[in-house]
Amino acid sequence: MTAAVTALLLTRHPTATFDTTGAVATAGFLCSPGAPGSAQTRVCHRAPFPSVFNGRSFTDIEAEEYVLVAAYADLLRDDGWTVTELPPDRPGLLVSKNTFAAGELLHG
């Protein structure tokens, strides 16, 4: 499921990249599996840590995260995914998709 979400988001948005220390090198989305057995994917946006070197503040990055996570949610919903917004302390999504087999709902 995470691969399918990643593939869809890549049609319009870049993924976050990281340097050798694990710090965000370039801004973009990040997908990871949800809780084991949940059939969900977590989606968020990551930007380089604010500093005097990149001229970004926490406020700038927070605003960017909220706007882009909302754009990710719209794209996923338009493609039939169920999107749940995570608590507002930091923007993020839980994403799942209903699956049918022989007319029976397997996940919803």
Description:
This protein is α+β, with helices and mostly antiparallel strands. It has helices at 2-10, 58-78; strands at residues 17-18, 24-26, 28-33, 41-46, 82-85, 93-96, 99-101, 104-107. It has two helices and eight strands.
Write the topology of this structure.
Layout lengths: L1 H9 L6 E2 L5 E3 L1 E6 L7 E6 L11 H21 L3 E4 L7 E4 L2 E3 L2 E4 L1
Antiparallel strand pairs: 1-2, 3-4, 4-6, 5-6, 7-8
What's the end-to-end separation, in Å?
Answer: 13 Å
Rg computed from alpha carbons, rounded to a whole number of angstroms? 15 Å
Which class of secondary structure composition applies to the elements?
alpha+beta
Can you count the helices? 2
Please give the share of residues in helix: 25-40%
Task: For the largest sheet, list the strands in their spatial order.
Answer: 3-4-6-5
Task: Compute the average pLDDT.
Answer: 88
The best one-word shape is: globular
How much β-strand is present in the residues? 25-35%
Brief characterization of the structure:
28% of the residues lie in helices and 30% in strands.
Based on the model shown, name its key terms.
single chain, 108 residues, alpha+beta, four-stranded antiparallel beta sheet, two-stranded antiparallel ribbon, 8 strands, 30% strand, globular
